[in-house]
């Protein structure tokens, strides 16, 4: 039986992952003959790490997903720098830009998304390309362009105060640029944050040298000068980085008359309206998730690989709970689930702690004792713990404040100020299970120094870390009853 | 060295730290006196187990006569009768069912001499391939990972005292404050410098010492290691010169770690991205830094890959093979190191040789005076061996030395059933352990202080333990037992000596030229106080305290990065079994507890099994602190008393595994095996928690309990 021909259009985070997942299940190509078509000339790279490249902490080489011999080692027919011009559904064939064709038994669209450029006057040149001094932040090439253009000390404007825009802003500020974020909504990251959290975040960014102009549209871009804002303000900028959102790349799907809404519509089997054609990642629209994040794309790739290789033909994608994590040095932000719930909401429990002066904000939304949503700014431990509770559906600890403050307090008793305050049953020497009570008894039996207590009880003869405590108890007892004579043995 | 006025210099019989102490002299019914002795590993410290270790020498629970099952009951028998019976049954069973019908199971507490002679006994006297040991349950994952990365596995490739100078130590899945308390002295400087980082799902006494406690969800250690490596790369902390000159394979390992950025790792592990970065930075910025792993991170179905992931981190930071830095694994059992080197493992021959290597077979066969073709090949690994006992294809008889699998093996209820299905179970032990209680023949043997032998401690140093006391009337050494059986199976007397030094001299020759070469170690040198770390290839060689300073043990001299990815535990919690159980130890008990539960002071300190539970989780199950609970997995149900621990994750419970009968934590554990090391997944299984009706409460402490 000859293997099925699977063609994947798109060699980004989703397409590359799908190829890996297919080969993990079908390492020798017994079930699937795999062709991957990528429009960019280079091997797939990890888009999530672009902000690290921009920040200068990671090299271009380290964000590549595959080595140059990857396709050969895994038996993948990889076509780089090749674009697809059309899909012939009746003939089950895709047409490439050079006129050649690929037949398929199953086709996967992993075409991703494109940066959306807002209608600010002057951002686009007459031919529709970006004007000089304007760059989107979407691809590795964009990243390299930004690095080349953003000379240290130069003013840079970032259009868009969403996740990606802020990561770019933080990276540029870290490189020594004077960064202004222009955002049309009244607070940053409005999809993930409530206004209070947005204010704390803006304040934190301000301390890192990033200015935020909120609730105002950029009206006009003047090359070499900067942005003119709708409120009459002016933002000087040698470079404008556009990060105002993305649009799913659906051109091929639309051309093939597949159902397209905001993205290519797919069901739980990741099928489009043509059951031989699938879509995953940013270009796909599934009711259970939002686009623009890698986790859903990777989970979709695993499900689709199960189906395409026959490893689990009944596999279904049911959506991915979204946890947003800002990856920006010195800014710790997590947001998940329902965040736009007020404290006085009647059908949910909402707990909120605010400490804006120290860049902290924590909000927890609970339903039926479980985490339904949270915003955590400047609270890394709480973010980690609450994310786990959310993902695993674990009931939240009853001490909500401790949860929001982060790390649970140590189980061991807080060291007592004086040995007098210790209960007699408390273990002083763990290595030899010696309690304070036993030490007191030994002292009263005439072992009045730490050394004598050690030989009588073995306290402090293991790891030795309780030596000071034993000395302290000997001193305290000596002071407490200096006159008491040593008992006869 | 040498005897002090108060007794003979020796080492503690329990863990791999092998604390120096003196014992004796004996005084009738009272236990011989134990005193700590200054020795590099323990510096005069002893924990409660060490202090009380001589109690068992005079315990009334001690066996002093062989026992033979007769009409369903064990009755005393003479040595002649017992050994004759065993030999006769072996011969019958092998004649009827083939050589592999008889299996051997050893232990990581046996001396080098015993481990060596046991392997030889299996291969030469029984000619069975079916031999493995309980070290498969502790050391095998780290050993395999160490071998892959460095070309040779020695737990600590440096003396333990090197840690004294460390500014930063990353301790992964290790709880030495309870498992080897005097060891923590060597962490003091790092702790004082704010450089002690502990990775443990529980806030253990060791974690309390740390500046940074990373508390991952059980079974997610591999992801955490990848996150730390990612953070090291992202923050420019990689020692690029070292990686270029001394390693290979970084690229492939990084391609996988690149997908595990700290925020993603946080979501899987619950360890904050900030803490991951801090940990990487603490290690990278320290003048002297170490990464040490132990069972917590190794006892998983992906244990080898997990250990490899920690080694990859150490390599990226340029630690291994440099003075004042390194990676190491904290060996657990007393002779966990030597025990894995000299041939009681299914796939090995003495000197850490591989049994499928023709040159190794030829060398060892020559020492043993047999034809290499007569040596069996590799056999089943420990759990697979136990699982096969008494089945159509499996062994019909088992000879067991220094182990108590009814308590310590995973899925212990099933293992007890398999043991019960045997035609012949022979157990050599000091006391009637839970496994011995179900045996057909029980052979009473001597203890540490009553016999000569060598142990190899956690740093690869060979230690001589001299006989300090007379054994009780009626017991024999394991070497004498093997001799007696081998003679009855037609072996010449000289092939199975009863004198430990004679056996050791043969071991030296068998190990010569192998990775763990003991040929230059002699009783005389050890008695003279020399600190000999293997390899010691000749009698004028000073030993090798630090491995890899010039080169790693691969042919090209480079260490290998191994590309590894996270895959998570085999059994995830679900609606029926919503909690994760993880198992471990308490300070007062050792392994299956067969010995320590018989020491009154230790039994009084921790008399029964318990389960640590988050107070909210306990309350939800209708349990209060101190109540008796059942913990149930797909494989079994355990009784344990609830201890509410607020620092525990609400989705996790913890049980120690030292207790017998219905309190055996290993009734729960999942025997999913690592594909390379065949290590079972002791550290993660899915369970549920429920109260025990008042009437059924059984706080009774059973010291023994038959399995039949």
UniProtKB/TrEMBL annotation, chain A:
<dbReference type="InterPro" id="IPR050260">
    <property type="entry name" value="FAD-bd_OxRdtase"/>
</dbReference>
<dbReference type="InterPro" id="IPR036188">
    <property type="entry name" value="FAD/NAD-bd_sf"/>
</dbReference>
<dbReference type="InterPro" id="IPR041575">
    <property type="entry name" value="Rubredoxin_C"/>
</dbReference>
<keyword id="KW-0274">FAD</keyword>
<protein>
    <submittedName>
        <fullName>FAD/NAD(P)-binding oxidoreductase</fullName>
    </submittedName>
</protein>
<dbReference type="GO" id="GO:0016491">
    <property type="term" value="F:oxidoreductase activity"/>
</dbReference>
<dbReference type="InterPro" id="IPR007419">
    <property type="entry name" value="BFD-like_2Fe2S-bd_dom"/>
</dbReference>
<keyword id="KW-0285">Flavoprotein</keyword>
<dbReference type="Pfam" id="PF07992">
    <property type="entry name" value="Pyr_redox_2"/>
</dbReference>
<dbReference type="Pfam" id="PF18267">
    <property type="entry name" value="Rubredoxin_C"/>
</dbReference>
<dbReference type="InterPro" id="IPR041854">
    <property type="entry name" value="BFD-like_2Fe2S-bd_dom_sf"/>
</dbReference>
<dbReference type="InterPro" id="IPR023753">
    <property type="entry name" value="FAD/NAD-binding_dom"/>
</dbReference>
<feature type="domain" description="FAD/NAD(P)-binding">
    <location>
        <begin position="5"/>
        <end position="300"/>
    </location>
</feature>
<dbReference type="InterPro" id="IPR016156">
    <property type="entry name" value="FAD/NAD-linked_Rdtase_dimer_sf"/>
</dbReference>
<feature type="domain" description="BFD-like [2Fe-2S]-binding">
    <location>
        <begin position="427"/>
        <end position="471"/>
    </location>
</feature>
<dbReference type="Pfam" id="PF04324">
    <property type="entry name" value="Fer2_BFD"/>
</dbReference>
<feature type="domain" description="NADH-rubredoxin oxidoreductase C-terminal">
    <location>
        <begin position="323"/>
        <end position="389"/>
    </location>
</feature>
Automatic annotation (TrEMBL), chain B:
<dbReference type="GO" id="GO:0051539">
    <property type="term" value="F:4 iron, 4 sulfur cluster binding"/>
</dbReference>
<keyword id="KW-0004">4Fe-4S</keyword>
<dbReference type="Pfam" id="PF00384">
    <property type="entry name" value="Molybdopterin"/>
</dbReference>
<dbReference type="InterPro" id="IPR006656">
    <property type="entry name" value="Mopterin_OxRdtase"/>
</dbReference>
<keyword id="KW-0411">Iron-sulfur</keyword>
<keyword id="KW-0408">Iron</keyword>
<dbReference type="Pfam" id="PF01568">
    <property type="entry name" value="Molydop_binding"/>
</dbReference>
<dbReference type="InterPro" id="IPR050123">
    <property type="entry name" value="Prok_molybdopt-oxidoreductase"/>
</dbReference>
<dbReference type="InterPro" id="IPR006657">
    <property type="entry name" value="MoPterin_dinucl-bd_dom"/>
</dbReference>
<dbReference type="GO" id="GO:0043546">
    <property type="term" value="F:molybdopterin cofactor binding"/>
</dbReference>
<dbReference type="InterPro" id="IPR006963">
    <property type="entry name" value="Mopterin_OxRdtase_4Fe-4S_dom"/>
</dbReference>
<dbReference type="InterPro" id="IPR009010">
    <property type="entry name" value="Asp_de-COase-like_dom_sf"/>
</dbReference>
<dbReference type="Pfam" id="PF04879">
    <property type="entry name" value="Molybdop_Fe4S4"/>
</dbReference>
<keyword id="KW-0479">Metal-binding</keyword>
<dbReference type="GO" id="GO:0046872">
    <property type="term" value="F:metal ion binding"/>
</dbReference>
<dbReference type="GO" id="GO:0022904">
    <property type="term" value="P:respiratory electron transport chain"/>
</dbReference>
<dbReference type="GO" id="GO:0016020">
    <property type="term" value="C:membrane"/>
</dbReference>
<protein>
    <submittedName>
        <fullName>Molybdopterin oxidoreductase</fullName>
    </submittedName>
</protein>
<dbReference type="GO" id="GO:0003954">
    <property type="term" value="F:NADH dehydrogenase activity"/>
</dbReference>
<feature type="domain" description="4Fe-4S Mo/W bis-MGD-type">
    <location>
        <begin position="5"/>
        <end position="61"/>
    </location>
</feature>
């Amino acid at each position: 039986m000859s293997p099925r021909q699977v063609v994947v259009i798109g060699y980004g985070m989703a397409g590359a992952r799908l190829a890996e997942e297919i080969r993990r299940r079908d390492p020798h190509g017994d079930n699937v003959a795999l062709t991957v078509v990528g429009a960019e000339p280079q091997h797939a790279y990890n888009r999530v790490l672009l902000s690290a490249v921009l920040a200068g902490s990671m090299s271009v080489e380290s964000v590549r997903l595959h080595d140059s011999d990857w396709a050969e080692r895994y038996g993948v027919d990889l076509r780089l720098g090749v674009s697809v011009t059309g899909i012939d559904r009746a003939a089950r064939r895709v047409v490439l830009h050079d006129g050649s064709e690929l037949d398929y038994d199953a086709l996967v669209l992993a075409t991703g998304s494109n940066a959306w450029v807002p209608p600010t006057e002057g951002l686009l040149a007459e031919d529709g390309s970006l004007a000089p001094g304007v760059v989107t932040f979407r691809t590795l090439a964009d990243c390299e362009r930004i690095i080349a253009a953003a000379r240290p000390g130069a003013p840079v404007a970032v259009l868009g105060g969403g996740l990606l825009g802020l990561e770019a802003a933080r990276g540029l500020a870290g490189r020594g640029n004077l960064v202004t974020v222009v955002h049309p909504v009244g607070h940053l990251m409005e999809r993930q944050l409530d206004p209070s959290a947005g204010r704390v975040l803006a304040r934190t960014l301000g301390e890192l040298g990033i200015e935020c102009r909120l609730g105002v549209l950029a009206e006009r871009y003047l090359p070499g000068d900067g942005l003119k804002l709708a409120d009459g303000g002016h933002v000087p900028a040698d470079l404008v980085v556009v990060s105002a959102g993305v649009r799913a790349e659906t051109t091929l799907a639309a051309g093939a008359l597949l159902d397209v809404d905001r993205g290519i519509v797919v069901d739980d089997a990741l099928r489009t309206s043509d059951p031989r054609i699938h879509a995953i990642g940013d270009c796909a629209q599934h009711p259970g998730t939002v686009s623009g994040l890698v986790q859903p794309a990777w989970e979709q790739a695993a499900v689709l690989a199960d189906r395409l290789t026959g490893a689990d033909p009944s596999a279904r994608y049911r959506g991915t709970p979204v946890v947003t994590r800002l990856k920006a040095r010195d800014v710790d932000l997590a947001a998940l689930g329902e965040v736009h719930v007020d404290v006085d909401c009647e059908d949910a429990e909402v707990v909120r702690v605010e400490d804006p002066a120290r860049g902290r904000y924590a909000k927890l939304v609970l339903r039926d004792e479980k985490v339904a949503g949270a915003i955590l700014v400047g609270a890394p431990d709480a973010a980690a713990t609450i994310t786990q509770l959310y993902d695993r559906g674990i009931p939240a600890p009853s001490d909500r404040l401790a949860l929001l403050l982060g790390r649970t307090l140590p189980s061991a008793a807080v060291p007592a100020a004086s040995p007098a305050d210790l209960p007699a049953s408390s273990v002083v020497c763990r290595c030899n299970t010696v309690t304070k009570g036993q030490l007191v008894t030994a002292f009263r039996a005439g072992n009045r120094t730490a050394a004598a207590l050690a030989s009588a009880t073995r306290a402090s003869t293991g790891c030795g870390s309780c030596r000071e405590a034993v000395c302290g108890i000997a001193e305290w007892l000596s002071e407490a009853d200096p006159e008491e004579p040593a008992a006869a043995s | 060295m040498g005897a002090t006025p108060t007794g003979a210099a020796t080492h503690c019989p329990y863990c791999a730290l092998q604390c120096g102490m003196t014992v004796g002299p004996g005084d009738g019914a009272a236990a011989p006196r134990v005193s700590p002795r200054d020795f590099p590993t323990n510096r005069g410290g002893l924990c409660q187990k060490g202090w009380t270790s001589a109690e068992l020498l005079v315990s009334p629970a001690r066996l002093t006569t062989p026992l033979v099952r007769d009409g369903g009951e064990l009755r005393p028998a003479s040595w002649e009768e017992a050994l004759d019976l065993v030999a006769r049954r072996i011969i019958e069973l092998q004649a009827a069912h083939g050589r592999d019908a008889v299996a051997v199971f050893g232990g990581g507490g046996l001396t080098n001499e015993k481990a060596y002679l046991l392997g030889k006994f299996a291969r030469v006297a029984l000619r069975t391939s079916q031999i493995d040991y309980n070290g498969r349950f502790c050391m095998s994952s780290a050993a395999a990972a160490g071998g892959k990365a460095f070309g040779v596995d020695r737990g600590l490739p440096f003396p333990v005292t090197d840690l004294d100078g460390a500014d930063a130590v990353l301790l992964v899945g290790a709880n030495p404050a309870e498992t080897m308390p005097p060891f923590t002295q060597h962490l003091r400087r790092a702790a004082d410098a704010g450089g002690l980082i502990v990775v443990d799902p529980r806030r253990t006494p060791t974690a309390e010492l740390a500046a940074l406690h990373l508390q991952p969800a059980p079974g997610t250690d591999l992801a955490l290691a990848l996150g730390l490596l990612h953070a090291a790369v992202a923050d420019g902390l990689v020692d690029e010169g070292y990686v270029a000159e001394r390693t290979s394979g970084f690229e492939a390992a990084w391609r996988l770690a690149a997908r595990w950025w700290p925020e993603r790792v946080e979501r899987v592990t619950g360890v904050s991205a900030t803490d991951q970065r801090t940990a990487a930075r603490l290690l990278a910025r320290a003048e002297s830094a170490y990464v040490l792993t132990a069972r917590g991170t190794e006892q998983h179905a992906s244990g080898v890959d997990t250990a490899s992931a920690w080694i990859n981190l150490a390599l990226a930071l340029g630690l291994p093979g440099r003075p004042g830095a390194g990676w190491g694994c904290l060996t657990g059992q007393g002779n966990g190191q030597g025990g894995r080197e000299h041939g009681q493992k299914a796939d090995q021959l003495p000197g850490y040789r591989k049994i499928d290597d023709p040159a190794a077979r030829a060398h060892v066969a020559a020492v043993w005076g047999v034809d290499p073709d007569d040596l069996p090949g590799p056999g089943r690994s420990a759990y697979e061996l136990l699982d096969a006992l008494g089945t159509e294809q499996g062994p019909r008889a088992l000879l067991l030395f220094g182990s108590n699998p009814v308590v310590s093996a995973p899925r212990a209820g099933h293992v007890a059933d398999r043991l019960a299905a045997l035609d012949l179970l022979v157990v050599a032990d000091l006391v009637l352990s839970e496994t011995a209680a179900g045996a057909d023949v029980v052979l009473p043997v001597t203890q540490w202080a009553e016999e000569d032998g060598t142990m190899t401690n956690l740093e690869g140093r060979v230690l001589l333990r001299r006989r300090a006391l007379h054994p009780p009337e009626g017991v024999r050494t394991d070497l004498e037992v093997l001799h007696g059986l081998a003679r009855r199976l037609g072996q010449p007397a000289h092939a199975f000596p009863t004198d430990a030094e004679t056996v050791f001299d043969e071991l030296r020759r068998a190990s010569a030229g192998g990775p763990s070469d003991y040929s230059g170690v002699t009783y005389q040198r050890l008695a003279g106080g020399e600190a000999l770390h293997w390899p010691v290839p000749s009698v004028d060689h000073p030993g090798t305290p630090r491995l890899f300073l010039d080169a790693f043990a691969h042919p090209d001299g480079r260490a290998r990065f191994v590309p590894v990815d996270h895959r998570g535990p085999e059994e995830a919690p679900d609606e029926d079994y919503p909690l994760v159980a993880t198992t471990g130890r308490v300070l007062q008990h050792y392994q299956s507890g067969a010995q320590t539960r018989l020491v009154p002071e230790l039994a009084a300190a921790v008399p029964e099994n318990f389960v640590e539970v988050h107070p909210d989780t306990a309350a939800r199950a209708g349990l209060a602190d101190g109540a008796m609970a059942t913990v149930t997995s797909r494989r079994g149900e355990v009784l344990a008393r609830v201890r509410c621990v607020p620092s525990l994750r609400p989705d996790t419970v913890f049980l120690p595994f030292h207790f017998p009968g219905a309190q055996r934590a290993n009734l729960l554990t999942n025997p999913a095996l690592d594909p390379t090391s065949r290590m079972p997944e002791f550290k993660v299984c899915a369970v549920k928690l429920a109260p025990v009706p008042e009437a059924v409460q059984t706080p009774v402490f059973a010291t023994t309990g038959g399995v039949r």
